[in-house]
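Hi, here's the filled form for the chain we discussed.

Project: internal
Contact: R.S.
Residues: 728
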Amino acid sequence: MTQPPTPRQTTQPCNAAAALRGLVAYIVWAIIVSLLADPLSAALGLQHAATTLQFWGFVVLAPLAAIVASRMRTVRTTLGSMQHAAAPEPEQSAQEPGDDVRYRLLVNNLPVGIFHYDTDLRITEFNDRFAQILRAPPHALQRLDMGTLRDLRILDALRDALSGQPGRYTGEYLATLSGRQIRINLRTTPVFDAEGKVSGGVGIVEDISAQHEAESMLNESETRYALAMRGTNEGLWDWNPVSHSLFLSSRLLSLLGAEGEHQRTTSDEWLKLIHTQDRARFQSALIAHLKGQTPHFECEYRVLDRKGEFRWVLARGLAQRDEHGRAYRMVGSIGDITERKRAEARLQSELRFTRTLIDSLPVALLVIRPDGTISLWNRFFSQLLGYEDEEIANMMAMRLVAPKDNALLRERMACALQQGKASARAELITRDGRTLPFDFLARSVELESETRLLCIASDISEQLAIEASMRDINRELEARVAERTAQLTAALKELESFSYSVSHDLRAPLRAIDGYSAILASDYGHAFDDEARLLFQRMRAAVQRMGMLIDDLLNLARVSRQNLERRRVDLSALAAEIAQELQHSDPQRSVRFDIEPDLQVDADPSLLRIALENLLGNAWKFTSRRDEAQIRIGRIRDEAGEDGYCVQDNGAGFDMRYADKLFGAFQRLHHEREFEGTGIGLATVARIVARHGGRIWAHGEPDKGARFCFTLGRHSDRSAAAPPADNA
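And the returned structure, exactly as it came back:
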């Protein structure tokens, strides 16, 4: 009869099996904790606690699971022994080795690589997945000294486990045996013996190369998407059509003037922010996409921002559908297009204004394509020719041209396309068959990426009629001018006869009166009393003044009739000569003349001398009551840029209210008792200046002097015609 095994014999195999099962349980639990730490902490909202959860899982929970598994196995073994002692034990093949096989299968089928190493960093156990990750033969890994690896970046994590702490390494790794460059996630934990000392370590290796590549691609994609959205200045939204929940991104909130990382609201609340005039269009576009009638959702509408103002936005979105085609989610973007809408509104307003302006032009305007068809025209053009807009659209422009002008207009249009502009005169045919004459001006312009002709056509029917009428009027005027010229010639002859009579016939009686009065005063003066002598003096003065008037009138007539012969004259020298003559005539006076040098003019010398004699004579006369008289002759430039010349004095001056009378014959602003003269001098000056094609003006102030300025016309001005020759 076979003796039952002694407790020692029974306990040793049981303890070894229990230790193996405890180790397997430890490894399995460590793997579970490692795999579930990240998603579990994220689900609980404790992303930063993942490392802590892994640590306590390795240090506390995994050993605890191993101990529990070992104790449970011990209890099962003890109960089995008691049952074996109480009854004959049937032949057992090896139940425990069957459990070991199951544990080994379990470890080998795990999706991660597992290995055990001793305190000398030598690999003692590993599963098949570990060899697959490293792509190394199993026999080469057995007892491999990890201190001699090519890539030593994992040694810190291995040594952490040997020091009693869990270790971790995530990153690139170069396999020693295969030379494979992979990315791994390594977690290590210490293994304790029966006495609680570290007897080695267990490592769990994940090949995360594919996962890392996928995450990198995802990050790059997300980065590109984020940059694209940032570049387009758009915000994101996420909507659940079932629950109506709506997610708004921070960028979308900022577009509405709000702050925050994001906001969760409902589509009903969002609908309240949409302008009442845009809600129906928004809902129609949204429903059409939800029903699958449109490939994507797109709508422009106005939405109320936090400032109480409506902003235009462009919303786009795409629905996600289940296997039945029903939309369960919709994601999209919203961009602020307020400025674009404002620009479009301004553009539309400008286009309307431009169209109104074009239609209101009093000339015909049309744009012709290179193929000769009309692409644009204004209302004046269509109404003038009697066509409807539908008839003109895409009509060949040459169809409207009279046959006799067809070739000319084709040549002019080709010239405008080549040289940029051209003009022509041609006749157009109206809808009822009439012809109207037009003046065309064509310019090449760039429209819709092609060169076209902008034509402006002016109806010259009325102009031609006026020109014909003007020709008739001109012929009639020419006849009248010839008649009036003959009459004027006769009148001039009569005037010349009168001048001759004045110069010859009137002077003789005046000389007789003056001579007889002088004889009476000389021979019978002693018989006259004082009053009679005074009357004789007044009579003789009147006769002399009458002679002066006759002389001035003759000079004025002579100035008007004298031939104008321009040449270069030194005005400065001429003025100095006249000033010297004035000083010789009255040497008792002290007058300072200031004459600007080198005043060169183009004028008739004799007429210019007469004008200067009158102007300087007036200045000399009206400064006679000044102790320090000053007369200045200088150059100025008038408003038209023409050179002018001024004679200025500090004499008696005049009131500007009567300035218009200065240059008329016999007009005086001072009484002859104050200053002698006939009032013909300035009229003579004005006549001489007019003969030269210039103008004269004056400025003065009572008792503060006067300034007389004149121009002599431009050097090329020869418009002043010579009067008829004296036939007397």
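Let me know if anything looks off before we file it.
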